Amino acid sequence: MRYILPITALVFLTLSIATPSFAVTKVPPGNRSASQPKIPATSVSRTRSTNGSFQAKYEKIRDLIDSDKKLKGKIKKAAKRYGIAPIHIVGALVGEHTYNVDALDHLQTYYVKAISYFKSDVEFSHAGESVSKFVKRPEFSKCETSRDSYDLWACREGVWKAKFQGKAVGGTKWPNERFGRVFFQPFYAGQTFGLGQINPLTALQVTDVVAKKSQKKKLSASRANEVYKTTMEPDTTLQYMAAVIRVSIDSYRSIGGFDISNNPGVTSTLYNLGDVRNRARRAKAKGGLPRENYYGWLVNEKRSELEAILK
Prior knowledge:
Helix content: 55-70%
Shape: globular
Order of helices and strands: HEHHHHHEEHHEEHHHHHEHHHH
């Protein structure tokens, strides 16, 4: 027997589905700061050590994108798959290669490096204990109910900071360093890789999103060489870049109540800083529009120029 809802109930149900739980504020294009925020000393010294300049590094990555039709095609394809504008990916590429590392001259170089990393014998570990084994400790048990890979690894980072960082546990004195620096940098400190300069922990955080959107096999901390190959190879690193940006946009909308989808300076800032879900919570509590940092400021400043090279 069919049950017919009263018309008043139908109206209420329709309104409850159509109406969001809170208002979403659109973040307009452009910079909130009139001048560029201060660039960190580490970025300045890194650029000076190679006798370079930020302008020269910006022009190099801009020209690489502009001159490589295949790369532009891959950027657009990744952006479409993840439902974002291509300028968000371009902005992250420009920010990383202007303020962190120099872009390599040819896309093919990244493919060659990806193969070399895949063949390497490397493990995510500290003092002989793999991170896969480490996170099986009882302190991390609460993280197993996390809804996705992002929250899983964010929870593990939180447990590390609260229970282990700089503390003596079980007769072992743990370093007073970030979780990612202790367990996910077996080669050298300050590690990010590939065209998108993605660090291994970030890749693991968004592997659920990539698996769903791109039908890629999920990454695992127990297969470090696969993580490195993925972050080095342009085809896959662009998918992971798009996933990171997608998570930022979704988090700021659902948690913070901000629509940042038309401000690549803000998405680039979040790409640079990470920890987007906690930042979204803080942005909501603070009020006011999200602001760009030095890295995102450049992206917004150069937006028209960068969009022109995509056409």
